[in-house]
Each structure stands twice: as C-alpha cells, then as structure tokens.
Design goal:
This protein has about 170 residues and is of the alpha+beta class. The protein has one helix and seven strands. A hairpin with a 6-residue loop joins β5 and β6. It is elongated and about 70 Å long.
Length: about 170
C-alpha cells in the first residue's frame, strides 16, 4: 500500500511538472524573437518554488509521510498465542498419487462447499469435522484447536508432516 501511494504521488508530480512546462513554453517567446532589452526575459529563478531534485530529473522533492502501521488485533480471551479464529481449516497429503488422507474442520454456520478445500487421490481416508463450536489454527505450528458442540474441552490436531496442502480462512 505504501509503495502504491508513493508511486501515485510521483506520478501526480510528474504530470503537474509536464503541465506547468507546457503552459510556460506556450506563453514564452522563443529566444530568437525575445526582446533582449526586456529584463523579464532573464528572470528565470523563482525563489518561492520548492527546490528541484538535484538528480537532474526536474521533479520536485515532496515529503511522503510514513504509513502508520495498523495495530495488532486484540487476541480473543483465552486464546493461546499464535492461534487465530478460523472459518475453516483443511489439510491433505497423498502417497503414490492415489492414497492419502484429508482433514477438514469448519464451524456449523458454514458449509464445506463454501471453501476451496485441499484434496487428495481417489483412495483417501477422510475426516469431516463440521460441528466445531470454536475453531482456531496456528499457521506457524500447523496445529488446529477446536471445541465440538456439546463438549467442554478442546481437542488439538497436528497438521504437520506429512500434510502437504494446508488451507484456512480467518474468521475476521
């Protein structure tokens, strides 16, 4: 976002410079026909203008403010560090092109068809967990933490090796 804003500012300045150069060139007389006794023909230094870029581009230097970083979101109460609330978590692996396993987790208000899930070969061992009252994912440890409807304690599943496909969507 910062790079885009910086590029747009530079583009705006270049357009302004081109427009000002065209308007000055259309109103000035050519050097061949200028009246040399007219002292206004030699007034080329405008001290009120900002300093020009010393790299020879002719662009004026403009201070571009640094972007303010967005504050980190407040973690949910009781949420362990690194975990984020998720709409769904999906992981799979394949062995030999046709065998493997996949695990899909989602909250009851969502359908698995709402998401782009990981897939595996034709002879997969599936796990569909669609009744996760609470669902969290830690991308750095590849751990899923979930609480099933009617249960009182969380369950944890590791989606590390051998799972090669991992997808999730944050809740917020």
């Amino acid at each position: 976002m910062y790079r885009l804003m910086k590029n747009l500012a530079i583009l705006f300045l270049l357009i302004a410079l081109i427009v000002s150069c065209e308007s000055e060139s259309s109103t000035e007389e050519s050097p061949d026909t200028a009246n040399i006794s007219d002292s206004s023909a030699f007034d080329v230094l405008d001290v009120s203008a900002p300093p020009l870029d010393t790299r020879g581009t002719g662009a004026q230097e403009v201070a571009v403010p640094e972007p303010t970083p967005e504050p980190e979101p407040e973690p949910e109460p009781g949420l362990e560090p690194g975990y984020i609330s998720a709409k769904f978590v999906s992981a799979s692996y394949t062995m030999g092109g046709s065998y493997g396993s996949f695990r899909h987790f989602t909250r009851p208000q969502y359908s698995f068809s709402d998401f782009d899930l990981c897939s595996c070969g034709g002879a997969c061992n599936p796990t569909w967990q669609s009744d996760c009252k609470e669902l969290y994912y830690n991308p750095s440890t590849r751990q899923v933490k979930y609480l099933l409807e009617g249960e009182e304690s969380y369950e944890y599943r590791s989606l590390g090796n051998p799972y090669t496909c991992q997808k999730y969507e944050p809740l917020n």
